[in-house]
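Recap from last week: sequence in, structure out.
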Amino acid sequence: MRMLFLFLTFMTPGGIAHADPAHPGPKDHCPVCGMFVAKYDRWLAQVVLPDGRHRFFDGPKDLFRYILEPKKYDHDVDKNQIREVYVTDYYTTQTVPAEKALFVVGSDVMGPMGPELVPVLGQEKAETFRKDHRGKRILSFHEVTLLDLPGMQ
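Predicted structure tokens:
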């Protein structure tokens, strides 16, 4: 009985253990653009797959391309198989769950590959960022579509 309790304690409501964000190694590259990601820690984004593997991205733009069309980049990955999604908060540079961030679209801040969606924690900070950097919109994680991504309009 105790083993069952411990097992259930470390499971998420969906039945899969929580996976923490990881740090990319020097050879980890973005599955969308092929760029090596370790040197872009201020923009780093990542997903955790069912087997515990991480996919790293040089910014939220490529992260969203991947999670909105995973089979295009990983033929054996389906959208609902992605366990965890993390982004780097613009102000704190901390890795945070993507669902907790807001994404500023259309700002004058450039990522490693040009225009980027900028992840910010909190509505007030997102509004301040949008005003300071001429952003067009603020979207939640679940509101972002391919048409919101720079270069996809």
